[in-house]
# Entry
Amino acid sequence: MKRKVTLKQIARELDVSISTVSKALRNSVEISEDTKQKVQAFAKLYNYKPNNIALSLKNRKTNTIGIIIPEIVHHFFSKVIRGVELVANQRGYNVIIGLSNESFAKEVINMEMLANGSIDGFIISLSKETLQQQDYHHFDETINQGMPIVMFDRVVSEIQCDKVIVDDFEGAKNAVEKLIENNCKNIALITTKDYVSVGRLRTQGYLEALKNYSLDLKAELILKLDDDINYEVNLDALEKEIEQLFKTNKTIDGIFAVNELYALTAMRVARRLGFNVPDDIQVIGFTDGVLSKHSTPSLSTVSQHAQLMGEKAAGLLIDKLENDEDEESYQTQIIASELIERESTK
Amino acid sequence: MKRKVTLKQIARELDVSISTVSKALRNSVEISEDTKQKVQAFAKLYNYKPNNIALSLKNRKTNTIGIIIPEIVHHFFSKVIRGVELVANQRGYNVIIGLSNESFAKEVINMEMLANGSIDGFIISLSKETLQQQDYHHFDETINQGMPIVMFDRVVSEIQCDKVIVDDFEGAKNAVEKLIENNCKNIALITTKDYVSVGRLRTQGYLEALKNYSLDLKAELILKLDDDINYEVNLDALEKEIEQLFKTNKTIDGIFAVNELYALTAMRVARRLGFNVPDDIQVIGFTDGVLSKHSTPSLSTVSQHAQLMGEKAAGLLIDKLENDEDEESYQTQIIASELIERESTK
DNA sequence: TTTTAACACGAAAACGTTTTCGTAGTGATT
DNA sequence: AATCACTACGAAAACGTTTTCGTGTTAAAA
# Structure
């Protein structure tokens, strides 16, 4: 087991100085052809590769970006990572991941772990707990230390940085308008409590669509679920909530849900209660998930183009990293959502 | 925007030496209480945190592990990552990801990018292309340079390193035996070409189960699909293949598929052809995916405990990293699979 | 008063690079 | 013979740490 070879070892072996070796390997004109060839041949033989850490220290640049997300076992987030990794790799960067697990504390810890020189910049989607507590000091500190941040999806106006979001409002509005045009008269909304910004925006889109078509807003058709409960594990609880919704509102003929799980569960409950989807009830979800495509009937959804979000976020971050002049201007890129019609709508 | 504060700056500011600052912050007995307090107070005020890169260079240890996987938008792999991240974080390590995208070249590039000092060790699942080409030189080189590797799931006996795998053979055998005990007489197998090791092992498990119950092996019941084709995109092609299987074998009453997509698609095709699942045909898949749980009917599967695999892999790697005596002994941990019975079996 | 020991701190090396600057040696020009 | 300009290389600093070792000061012991 031979350790990695360093400049110093090559220098000693060939009886020249470290500087000479370094210059020879970078083909400097200062070095004679003879010496260059000797050094390069030796380096190739021993498979010399410059030590990244040393380079990072010298250049004060790691060529690594950190991505912090609430959860990785989740199609949306893993697709975002794929996008980030794609662009990062193309542009010579590595990607290091941190999972906040929806916890404020873990988000802070993770950021502190990485902010101490390990990375050049952050790509982040806020944890639910952070959104709830509205404590953003760790972001301010990071930005103040000159480390750029790009936020995506779950963003917050209090933090000044580049952002990439999906047009939640428009996407929801279009989806609900589609239901209305498909002749739904009583469209239920299954959403989250308002502190999750995306939930709030999608709710607003729902309201806007109703308004545009002069439909009455019926408060009893809106089911706001507590997103603290992990319904993925606690599926029964979710089904009960939705079943209650159907039972107290017999006339529901359309459902818009702000995520995949809600939409899918609604569809399943509806069918169990004897409704036909889409003949009796039409359903649209908001997601980039994989369940929608494979469910029976397959679920119409508003696609968020997660991978594209990742690509844009990485692009924004790297642009900022490589533009030495640190102009203090921040942009928010909005990714157009797309309504994908499948079998759950007519 | 103030840059991160360094030992040198603190030293200059307080008019002491760098050594004194360093020692004071680490509470060395060499330093007087007075000085310690002064330094520590100053450091706290300016939020001093040691630079990780400098530490890594000094200690020749990055406390970062690299994980290289073929694909991230995939429940199995993202669950593995979650497990890796969990253990890594607990033990003070960061995780850096590389995606091979099932490509040999990208796998090599990614490894080279990370092997140059950026990380202390690798966790890897081989890309399909690597399995097919059987070119493992990049692993040998890495291991030779003293960087430990832990492989998981898609492993290969040619490489000497720690491994974490699921008992594909046993899992498949148990699943098929379950079908037999549930009175299936003609069990079809939907699998991949043999170069994917897990596919081969699961196929062997299927054969073993038949043998144990003295059932005849009928070659026409085995459908070997070309895993090069991305059936996730090309769903129609997959459905056609499976439909063909059903049409040429009218007596099929059980299906064992080596992954989620195959199993799910088989179930859908069967129902479209008028079969009832599980009454006419029972289906079991092999996966940790999310589709199985939410499909209708929900799909019985052999669970691989992906997260546990990740945890074990990370544990093995860090153990090796922290045991200075590099004993050249490698172990292979086998994770027991678990048959999860849902609605697609009786 | 001299020696000793404890105390409190600083200098310097090391990790592996890159880069600036200085300088021997050589051959050509005055 | 003295100056000059190259050529080809080496020394050293810098990035930010930690740690070993050396040393000046003071107080206690002889």
Observations:
- Chain A touches chain B through 51 residues (CB under 8 Å).
